[in-house]
Amino acid sequence: MNKKNDQPEPPPPSKNPLENLPLVRIQKELWEVKTRGLQTFRVVKAKDTEPLFWQILLIPDHPPYDQGAFRVQIEFPFEYPFKPPIFTFMTKIYHPNIDEKGQVCIPYIKPENWRPSTRIEQIIEVLLAMLHQPDLDRPLRTDVADQYQKDRKKFNRNADDYTKRHAEERPEPEPEPKKKKRKKKAE
Questions:
Q1: What fold characterizes domain 36-166?
Q2: Within 13 Å, how many C-alpha atoms sit on residue 23's CB side?
Q3: Are 84 and 70 contacting, i.e. CB atoms less than 8 angstroms apart?
Q4: How far apart, in Å, are the Cα atoms of 129 and each of 12, 61, 97, 134, 178?
Q5: If you compute the radius of gyration of the chain from its CA atoms, what whole number of angstroms results?
Q6: What DSSP element (H or E) covers 75?
Q7: 105 is an active site residue
Q8: Model-level pTM greater than 0.85?
Q9: pLDDT for 73-100, tens place per residue?
Q10: Domain UBC core, which positions (predicted)?
Q11: Which long-range contacts (CB under 8 A, 24 or more apart) does 41-46 make?
């Protein structure tokens, strides 16, 4: 116990380097995602003190979701990358594959389909593609899936209205990373 505030002291660093591999992998993926400069999503919360929890903003570029941004929480299990992360929409969205609690139906992140070589950026790209093209074979909201199939105009109006009411404001585009200029050799 720490005598100053009666809090337990953190455990000492592991002597087994394999125990730290999940954190190394998560930190590497975070760095890769942040340095890509992609305009369709942003990491808005990922702390060194809580590396197993990220929050991202999805910024779709196709209607009916292109008028807002959607906050998604990614929770990594301790066994990552051998077990899949959990993706949860924190922002309400009108979509056949996302339920009212924010749970997402993506086959790639089901335990039976998960591959340790899968990268978070790949799943985010699949999530964005699913927003644009719902998987109607695996709906979590059958009423919304039926509407999408039978009356696309009404679905688009409802999704657009939901986006306007619930989505976050879209952030400004990030500037392109500057390329280093090469110095000319003196002749």
A1: Ubiquitin Conjugating Enzyme (3.10.110)
A2: 11
A3: no
A4: 42, 10, 12, 8, 28
A5: 20
A6: strand 70-75
A7: yes
A8: no
A9: 999 998 999 999 999 999 999 999 999 9
A10: 21-168
A11: 41/124, 41/128, 42/171, 42/174, 44/71
Asked if 74 and 53 count as a contact pair (C-beta separation under 8 A), the reply is yes
Contact 152, 64 (CB under 8 A): no
Strands 50-58 vs 86-89: parallel, antiparallel or unpaired: unpaired
Which residue among the candidates 74, 104, 105, 159 is catalytic per the annotation?
A: 105
Residues with Cβ within 8 Å of 22's Cβ and at least 6 positions away in sequence, in order, are 76, 78, 79, 80, 81
The token pair that represents 152 in the structure block: 């696309």
Q: What is the pLDDT of residues 27-83, one digit of tens each?
A: 888 888 888 777 788 877 876 677 889 999 999 999 999 999 999 999 999 899 999
Give the whole-angstrom CA distance, residue 65 versus residue 154.
14
Q: Domain locations in the chain?
A: 36-166
User: In angstroms, what CA-CA distances link 154 with 46, 51, 80, 145, 165?
Assistant: 37, 41, 40, 12, 16
Count, residues in the chain:
187
User: What's the token pair of residue 116?
Assistant: 């340790």
